[in-house]
Amino acid sequence: MRFTDPATSGDVTPTIRAEMHRIARGRQTRPVRETGSSVYAVFDGSGTVTAAGGTWSVTRGDLFVVPSWQPFSARSEAGATDSDSGGLDLFRFSDPPVFEALKLTRSSRPSSSPAPTSDCPS
Fold this sequence. Notes:
Elements: E1 2-3, E2 17-24, E3 28-29, E4 33-34, E5 38-44, E6 46-51, E7 54-59, E8 63-66, E9 72-76, E10 87-94, H1 96-101, E11 107-108, E12 117-118
């Protein structure tokens, strides 16, 4: 879900995009590379994230950064004791509005990925 400015329907600020992503228990996102950097906060649940060649376990309250053009994917390992939502909930803020204004937006996904997958976050 993307947060928007109710007056303009655009991003929350001219330079920052804010989004919330839910990854259902046992699901994993397809790897993606994007121009621009992202900061994620784990709002609820637990899982593993893979970014820039490393893999880390994350849980509620953790923060992590995905640098520009580095592959990123996330897997929900949320359980009944660590997730109110039943999934891995990630709050993301990133800088795509800047790259879109400059017409420099790019993203790349591999042609195949392991099942089951989800398209979020993207």
